[in-house]
Amino acid sequence: MTTSTSSETPAPPAIVENGAESFRKFFQQPVVASFVAGGVAGAVSRTVVSPLERLKILFQVQSVGRNEYKMSVPKALAKMWRDEGWRGFMAGNGTNCIRIVPYSAVQFGAYNVYKRFFESEPGAALDAYQRLLCGGLAGITSVTFTYPLDIVRTRLSIQSASFETLKREAGQKLPGMWGIMTSMYKNEGGFFALYRGIVPTVAGVAPYVGLNFMVYEMARTQFTPEGQKDPSAVGKLAAGAVSGAVAQTCTYPFDVLRRRFQVNTMSGMGYQYAGIGDAIRNIVKTEGVRGLYKGIVPNLLKVAPSMASSWLSFEMTRDFVMGKRRSQFL
């Protein structure tokens, strides 16, 4: 009786080890590690604050005659829960995560690419203005790649809300991510409809991301104990909260403009802005200067846990991918 053997010869251990080593070295490159860690950080941070993110959008798109959510944040969250339950808290979060993973990955990866042009030597620290510029360029790069998903997420967040002008027939099935994207493409101007509102978005994202990176790296040093290279996990959380709060407060009116333009042609919302200047004039005229800051309270409430969890997740994931021991990043 003969025993059959495989004709395939196992790869020599040395080749397998070399392949694994090459794979590990590839992911340990700073840009690649930052790309992977940025994606993880984005998903974690947005899921943590999903209810407040959606409430911010609902506040932003209100105007004169549309005040269903003109109330305090706790009451608005309670209304959202009564009307839609847990699914209301998470409305648009799936699309948001699909968007934020590549968005955050590209942003952190691009920052590491851009900063190489300003380093006097690999790993050298940048000054505040260089961090601001590199962060701004990284923000523009990431938003350009992922903007269609952002505008779809905004519409998903709004379409099930209890706005009087958005009343629908009982039992009417709401479209999902691909349904909305297809409808916009067919009915609202083709490819360019998916980039409606990108100008005020870029105008707000560039300084926001730039400030975020600049302030975080400055705050990070303040939370690092003397004699240590890195802050503790609590220090990273605190630095992230500070950077997010500063960046959001300085650039918030651009975020309101972005949301208004994203729903400019959405049936029932009624906004008809000709451009950024026209939008600002109309908002200030009908809603006052405070109209440019609608939704800032839930936004600030979400910024601290969002950016804190984002930066901590980013640093821990990056250090893990780069092979640092647990004791080195906790």
From TrEMBL:
PROSITE patterns: SOLCAR (PS50920). It is found in: Mitochondrion inner membrane. Its main location: mitochondrion. It holds the Pfam family Mito_carr. InterPro entries: MCP, MCP_dom_sf, MCP_transmembrane. GO terms for molecular function: metal ion binding. The keyword Transcription regulation does not apply. SUPFAM superfamilies: Mitochondrial carrier. Keywords: Calcium, Membrane, Metal-binding, Mitochondrion, Mitochondrion inner membrane, Repeat, Transmembrane, Transmembrane helix, Transport. The keyword DNA-binding does not apply. One of its GO terms (biological process) is transmembrane transport. Solcar repeats lie at residues 29-117, 126-222, 231-320. It is a multi-pass membrane protein. GO terms for cellular component: mitochondrial inner membrane. It comes from the Eukaryota. Belongs to the mitochondrial carrier (TC 2.A.29) family. Mitochondrial transporter that mediates uptake of thiamine pyrophosphate (ThPP) into mitochondria. This is Mitochondrial thiamine pyrophosphate carrier 1. It comes from Paraphaeosphaeria sporulosa.
